[in-house]
Specification:
This protein is an all-alpha fold and about 325 residues long. It contains twelve helices and no strands. It is globular, with a radius of gyration of 20 Å.
């Protein structure tokens, strides 16, 4: 990678500017979302969605519209606007290049599946974490926020037929993966790499912010680990599409498992965090590490070849 063309703004100021753009865009998106839902379904639907008191098909549709207009679309607009308008460096900040080895997508697929026991164990550890007594109010708030997020997710992922499954896979698996990766592994990770001058620190910081952003505090550790995987996928390959694919595989798998469980095709609940044994955890760690090493070697070799041809990825 080269520093040529990097924005002249200090990374610390870039971060503050990014936060400002994010807050304003999310606020505008929320107002537009409420307005659109009120216009289509009425103000009562907006109030019921706000309280997650959702009982009718119109309210479920309204929740989907609200999710798209107030959250998903703004998260797409934020990194694109920031990269093209604010810093005027779309490639370094969005990393939309497709110049990477296709083998990486295969490796990503297997890494995501082989790391499932790791994520399960991190979930188990996370669930046992208890804050000190003097922070009981904070813990209660965290649990309430977690419950609200889970309730909204369950409503969105109530799939009665194959069309509902396809819609959820495309929206939750595909679109959500794209917009979140552009925001976190695209813009934010780039800012922190330039700020800290340490890509490893930048990847971990970005992963922590990514996990906290979801406001699901008792799933913080597994989502942190996912963010770390996504961060290294992009850093080693130079392309956002590797982490978008990983994110899609993770989310899409969860959606499909939920659908199969709802329709009693499988008996294992998607919420079950005691599926694997100790042997499964150890095996998962060993294979995942080996796959990650292989991914890194192939990715860096491919980038070295591209650089030797005189073409920089970012």
């Amino acid at each position: 990678m080269t520093d040529s063309g990097y924005s002249q703004m200090r990374p610390s100021f870039q971060f503050l500017l990014f936060i400002a753009v994010t807050l304003v865009t999310l606020l505008v998106g929320a107002l537009i979302g409420m307005g659109v839902v009120a216009l289509i379904y009425g103000t009562d639907t907006v109030l019921n969605i706000g309280q997650l008191n959702i009982n009718t098909p119109a309210e479920i549709s309204g929740l989907w519209v609200m999710q798209f207009v107030s959250t998903t679309l703004p998260i797409l607009v934020i990194p694109v606007f920031y990269a093209y308008v604010v810093v005027k460096e779309p490639q370094p900040y969005l990393k939309l290049t497709t110049k990477f080895s296709p083998q990486l997508l295969v490796l990503v697929f297997f890494i995501m599946f082989m790391s499932m026991p790791i994520m399960e164990q991190l979930s188990n550890i996370n669930e046992r974490l208890v804050l000190p007594p003097f922070l009981k109010g904070v813990e209660d708030w965290m649990r309430a926020a977690e419950h609200q997020a889970e309730k909204a997710t369950n409503i969105l992922l109530k799939m009665d037929n194959v069309w509902d499954l396809i819609k959820a896979v495309l929206f939750v698996g595909g679109l959500t993966a794209l917009v979140e990766e552009l925001m976190f592994r695209g813009v934010l990770q780039t800012i922190f790499i330039r700020w800290t001058q340490n890509p490893h620190a930048a990847i971990w910081i970005t992963a922590a912010l990514f996990s906290a952003f979801h406001m699901e505090f008792f799933g913080f550790l597994p989502r942190l680990m996912l963010g770390i995987f996504f961060g290294y996928f992009v850093y080693w390959s130079g392309s956002i599409w590797t982490s978008v694919w990983a994110h899609f595989v993770n989310n899409g798998t969860a959606v499909v498992i939920t659908y199969l469980y709802q329709h009693k095709t499988i008996k294992v609940s998607p919420d079950d965090t005691h599926v694997f044994s100790l042997v499964g955890y150890v095996f998962s760690i060993i294979i995942t590490v080996l796959l990650l090493i292989n991914y890194r070697n192939i990715a860096l070799a491919a980038r070295s070849n591209i650089t030797s041809d005189g073409t920089e990825l970012d």
